[in-house]
């Protein structure tokens, strides 16, 4: 076929269309998995059939190799969904644990609780190794006995907070649990910010005595709660109790901001109630406005996306930090892994996937780490399409075995349900290639792991 002065092109019968596309697209000597636009231009210069561009796009977009190896340059999927603004103090709370601290009076962790209405925070010293029952007792003593039973709790997926016991306690107390998905800090950004603030304050005061940090917590909690919060425009203390705590600064210059005109008891009570409700309503309006602004900023440039239950998706191993080898090897790891079956849509932004045991991770994943898998029926196209094997296939893992030289350190990974992990120095590699690994990845270094646990008194 020839059009005008263009060179002649070969007309391709329908039965040979997809074998031709496969030969050019899949070959390392032709297009080497070129994208649909460039591939169509390449084929169109030599061949012709009426639906050329559509067929080329269908083939390239459903290529398993392309989907797993190419970066997704589209806008990120999913919009921020702010939590509802609370109506009263300690109706909605969030909590977290700061762990990995040196022992201080028998404590090595801090239980941080934040009220979403007033922004009031609790800093409670505790033991990072406490079990679920011990945590439940701590929660009852520090939260319920002081402020009542909350309606909603926001937290990450620490093993204690996803346990059957804690879920049963929450159900019995009519508490709704809102748990984060893998690697999605926006779910509980409030507590993360408070954690950072507390850690900053501790660093400022405990440099000379790092084992005495627990003694600073009451003073630092008072300082935090009596400071004006940037979102509400009030101090958390004022919104919770209705007055500002008196401090030494109130007497500087001989003035006292608490001196007021005399009021009858009934007048003072009425004024207090009306003033309290007015200030709290202003705080709620400020929180709503801040959330709306945050959502607008976060959602700008993002796109909607949904995955039906029963469909298959790919998972980004880089944003979820699933890559096991650092350094130059990381550049050659697939951009996406899978595909995995969608088992459940937890909410519009979170999905539960069916994942094999070779992926020891939380299968509840935020949409921003997922990509729709374009299914391809090779039998309809009449070709055998290339498929990349699962890199966690046992045979591949065995072929890529690395030798452990020694274990450098250990930690509790909160994003992996407080999983115990070890910093591994690989034989023949410098410290820049050290990686954090769970014990399940160190089966061939049993003696090294056993000795390290014994030295550091690790029993689990």
From TrEMBL:
Localization in the cell: Nucleus
Main location: nucleus
One Gene Ontology MF term: RNA binding
All copies of domain Integrase catalytic, residue ranges: 85-244
Keywords: Aspartyl protease, DNA integration, DNA recombination, DNA-binding, DNA-directed DNA polymerase, Hydrolase, Magnesium, Metal-binding, Nucleotidyltransferase, Nucleus, Protease, RNA-binding, RNA-directed DNA polymerase, Transferase
Any one GO CC term of the record: nucleus
Residue ranges constituting the Chromo domain according to the UniProt record: 402-452
Gene Ontology biological process terms, A to Z: chromatin remodeling; DNA integration; DNA recombination; proteolysis
Annotated protein name in UniProt: Uncharacterized protein
Source organism of the structure: Rhodofomes roseus
